[in-house]
Design a protein that fits this description.
mainly alpha, 6 helices, 150 residues
């Protein structure tokens, strides 16, 4: 065997090694992307759970939320502020979900978000609070939420 043949074999082995490395890196990137989607999904769900836990843990917060959801007008100024802030926080979380669903960075679909909004639409106080705050959100999310809340 001459040196040219040895060099050709070495080049072939090197090219094969590069190919295996690229396949390995592509697999690692795919797994990393999946993990990042899972982490983002978990973070959004945790935000909702934290809101729910606040309702469970604090009777005053729950009372204000129930009172506000039923008829926003009956709230004192302090209660109204707390209720509108709670609705704004929930809507901000939904906006984050909506944008992440749209760009594919979470493992959720729009059906999940539509279900949450449909549940909220049954509460006149939440709908009224949304109408007061809707202009603070991007147009694409406003249009999406309006289909369920107005």
């Amino acid at each position: 065997m001459n040196w040219d043949a040895v060099g050709s074999i070495a080049e072939l082995v090197g090219a094969f090694a590069v190919l295996l490395t690229l396949i390995y890196l592509a697999t690692q990137m795919k797994q990393n992307n999946k993990q990042m989607q899972d982490d983002a999904t978990e973070a959004l769900i945790t935000q909702f759970n934290n809101f729910r836990l606040a309702l469970l843990a604090d009777g005053e917060v729950a009372r204000i939320y129930i009172k506000g959801a039923e008829a926003n007008e009956e709230l004192s100024p302090e209660e109204s502020l707390r209720f509108r802030t709670a609705v704004g926080n929930v809507m901000s979380t939904m906006w984050g979900m909506h944008s992440r669903i749209q760009n594919g960075t979470v493992n959720l679909d729009l059906d999940y978000l539509e279900g949450l909004l449909s549940n909220m639409a049954a509460s006149p106080g939440i709908v009224a609070s949304w109408k007061e705050q809707r202009n603070t959100f991007p147009a694409e999310f406003r249009e999406f939420a309006d289909r369920h809340l107005t």
